[in-house]
Design a protein that fits this description.
The chain is α+β, with helices and mostly antiparallel strands. The protein is 64% helix and 10% strand. The chain folds into 3 domains: 55 residues, no CATH class; 130 residues; 91 residues. The radius of gyration is 43 Å and the shape is rod-shaped.
């Protein structure tokens, strides 16, 4: 009577080793194209916190607030309302302080969910920013009016020939009525002219500096309003090119192929064992 020993089993496996390898290779290369397992995709986006100009600190979103908003039931309801399908999402923070939003699911769902989440976060920042901008716009309007007033008054300080003629006529009338005893007592002495010139120069310098400073203030406010405030955003825009497949992984296909090859050998040994029993 023939016996089915370990050496016979190993000999059978050895004689069919090439077939086993072929089954493994064919299974491994065929599985990804059979679509037996639904593909799942993943993307991790760096979240860039909002910014404000120096000296205008406002309460923009930080990690704790972002986490509370994203993980809240209200966010999920908002996503369900505005999307046919919602991908899996969660917020995390690295040891270096970087904030990440991770999304998993189908490609279209990831893009839609990621954009909707960021739009909702930006709404919180933009409400705070708009309040501060309204105050700055009010200041800008006041500065523009002040500049207009200063610019209009610039020519008023300049002494024209007509001003000199009017002054001379008044001085002559005053001197006739006053009748000074000598020329040194005349009010039209050189010292008065010198002082008048100095005052005129000082007024012109102060006015010019005032106009320049006001223009600089207006320019700074305009730049601040246009570029100084930024709401939360992704470090780089969310793109379909960033979305990568993470499931099923090659390791899973390798394991399945290995199992199929093992199953083939198991069936083969069972068949040979039954042949011996006959």
């Amino acid at each position: 009577m023939n016996e089915f020993t370990l050496s016979k089993a190993l000999n059978i496996i050895y004689r069919h080793f090439l077939v086993t390898i072929a089954i493994f290779v064919v299974t491994y290369w065929s599985l990804p194209n059979l679509n037996l397992i639904q593909d799942k995709f993943k993307v991790q986006k760096t979240v860039h916190l909002g910014q404000y100009p120096k000296g205008h600190r406002i309460e923009l979103l930080d990690y704790n607030k972002i986490y509370e908003i994203v993980q809240s039931p209200s966010m999920y309801l908002y996503l369900q309302k505005n999307s046919e399908s919602v991908s899996k999402y969660y917020v995390d923070k690295s040891e270096f302080g970087n904030i990440f939003l991770t999304l998993e699911g189908q490609e279209a769902d990831i893009i839609n969910t990621g954009n909707l989440i960021m739009l909702k976060l930006q709404e919180f920042d933009e409400r705070v920013i708009e309040v501060e901008k309204s105050e700055l716009k009010r200041r800008l309007e006041l500065d523009r009016k002040a500049l207009e007033t200063l610019s209009k008054s610039e020519n008023s300080y300049a002494i024209t020939n007509n001003d000199i003629e009017d002054f001379a006529e008044l001085q002559e009338s005053f001197d006739k009525l006053y009748k000074p005893k000598n020329i040194l007592q005349s009010s039209s002495n050189i010292a008065a002219v010198v002082n008048l010139k100095r005052e005129d120069v000082n007024r012109q310098v102060n006015l010019t500096l005032g106009i320049q400073n006001k223009k600089l203030d207006i320019q700074n406010l305009e730049v601040m309003l246009d570029e100084g405030f930024k709401s939360v955003s992704y470090l780089f825009p969310l793109s379909i090119d960033e979305v990568k497949k993470f499931y099923p992984s090659p390791i899973l296909f390798f394991g399945i192929s290995l199992f199929v090859a093992f199953l083939y050998n198991l069936v083969l040994l069972n068949y040979k064992f039954r042949e011996i029993l006959k």
